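In practice, a research group might receive sequence data for several interacting partners and want a quick structural hypothesis before committing to experiments. The following worked case mirrors that situation: the sequences arrive first, and a predicted assembly follows.
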Amino acid sequence: MKLADVALPVPVPRAFTYEVPSALEGVAPGARVVCPFGARAITGVVLAVREGEPPEKVRPIAKVLPISLPADLTSFLVELSQYYFAPIGEVFRLAMPPLDRETAESTIRAKSDTLGLFGDEEAKGLSAKKIQWAEPTAGTEEPSKLSAQARAVLAHLRAHGGYPVARLVEKWGNARAAIEKLSELGLVRVTTRDKEPDPFFDTTVPRDVPPVLNPAQEEATRAICAAVTAGDPRTFLLHGVTGSGKTEVYMRAIDAAKARGVGVIVLVPEISLTPQLVSRYRARFGDGVCVLHSALTARERYTMWSRLRAGEVDVAIGARSALFAPVKDLGLIVVDEEHDSSFKQEEGVRYHARDMAILRAFRRGGVCVLGSATPSLETVHLARTGKADKLVLAARARAQEMPAVEIVDMRRTGAGPTGDKKLTIPLHRAIEKTLEKKEQIILFLNRRGFSPSVRCHACGELVVCPNCSVALTFHKGRSRVVRCHYCDHEEPLLERCAKCKAPALELEGLGTEKLEETLAAAFPEAKVARLDRDVASGKAIERVIERVRSREVDVLVGTQMVTKGHDLPFVTLVGVINADAALSIPDFRAAERAFQLLVQVAGRAGRGDAPGRVVVQTYDPSHHALVFALQHDTEGFVERELRDRRELGYPPYSRMALVRIDAVDEEVAKGAAESVAATVRRATRGEVDVLGPAPAPIARVRGRFRFRVMLRAPDRKKLRPGLVAAAHVLEALPRNVRGVLDVDPVQLL
Ligand SMILES: [Zn+2]
Ligand SMILES: [Zn+2]
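A structural hypothesis for the assembly, expressed as tokens:
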């Protein structure tokens, strides 16, 4: 009997076997199929087709959907699943187009028992939104007898490469007549296509003119384009300081890919924070890129998915999940800001999009470009061991100087006029001076809220979350509440201590909300805005940034959000309120992250014509992460940090995995973690270091106690038996215990 192994999006770590009915004989790996599953129908992907003895009660595949996954994507997903010990169905779910669930359910609702190809039903459901699209033909001539309006429409179409007719009518009332005339003359072609679903499209970006490359850009471009053109599966580290013009190099590489007719994926960190970056690709490639982001509806994403699959669009841009875009004939993957921790998925399938981008490109014979101003030590290590070619863009593309960085030792420096120790005299004066010059300021503080904690000064009791072992943060706003940043628990701030009843609760520490208030009071003339997760998400972030860009705001106060690649030419002062917060995290990568953060935040200063200045406040001015950041010395930092890692046996000199266990009952969680540790120790007989179990640094979250067991070995091959053993124990955990295996963990908290 002909059988198919199918990955179904259910959390079971294996594929399911189905019968291939004779009517569907042509089904091949990668095909999307609707399969009966219990009383339901689910869409899955065929992994393999074979002849064999059918297992008991085997059921037939119900339908084959018209568009399959590309073969290279199918095999890549299988490999990813094996690498991370992740359930195969969950992994395929990452790559399947949305609507598949709907499709499967409607199949069952319709009780259509006719086997056979799904036909155009699927497409029919999507055809609701068609639009007319006008695009210029190849010609460049312009007959003299055209009306002014027709001429304007033609110029607009040539500038944008194409435009929805309805929008042209919005701009020019008589656009339809003009288009008809242009169409008669063979200058414009009108087609019907799916409604442009992309909200990024609304910001009508004028097409740009590629700038002349500087010598460093030219050299990097030459190396990458040669590999793209030759189909040489190489990995490049493009190390360029902030403002050195990496994006231009990526765009030239995309040109080379387009010229060769291969597809491209561009991964960017947290796309909602970087609309400006994305619009640069739009400006260059117009409609030839498709931007995948969370604001799209399932239907819109489906449309993009099928266009990419068909090769109608050959460049996909998006956050980490764009790694799974079904790009046709993939030949290039760019990972921009490759050091960014948002490339690691921290729930479900815990994959790292940067690591997997290298793998996916390599398997396809494609090129992978990892770009950063502050490369991760993993990527630096790849370059040093010959697994990646390093290219350097040393200077800023437009000849600004790197900003001058000053360190303020908070142990020796008093509070400025506000009386707040977190706003020292040097920083206060620097703000004053910058405001006098009518330039802009960014102040970076790692903590949102008003005060990070509330403590009773009579008995010392800290106000903590009832569900988590963390302090509650005071948010002033209108509501005067304390809130947990882990589980979002919220309660009113009481007048008296819950323990000793004394009216002695005091606010401790400084959050972005309080900093905003302090500044507004100290500089009443200045317009202060705040950017953090409490005030902005999605489009709202863009609006805040836009207000800064249009100089409606003088001082922007914010968390990490302000460090992302925004290009704000009138910002000349960047202040880091407390550099120590990032250094005190109990994680071997704390110094690396602090260094990256400082360099990125400093990179926001002086991007226009005026020189930039950075003031960093700290209690630990001799910390090597600060000292090297002060000198913009990435090489020096990398050298020092790699030496430490090698001595301590941390990645990139070893491979790690983290087993995370949690349960409502502390003893149950601890017991399960102990059994994981014991089993792995027994199975690996000293080949794998097993550390723990130990309580997680935040021991309780959302009412569940958390324990961890760390596995470590010199390389992946030696680690593998440990992973196999751990995966076995995790599969057999009792129902009241949750356990996950995190291979190559990034977040140790
Ligand atoms: Zn008290
Ligand atoms: Zn909580």
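Before designing any experiment, note the following. Residues 666-684 form the longest helix (19 residues). The pocket of zinc ion (ligand 2) is lined by residues 465, 467-468, 484, 486-487, 489 (CB under 6 Å).
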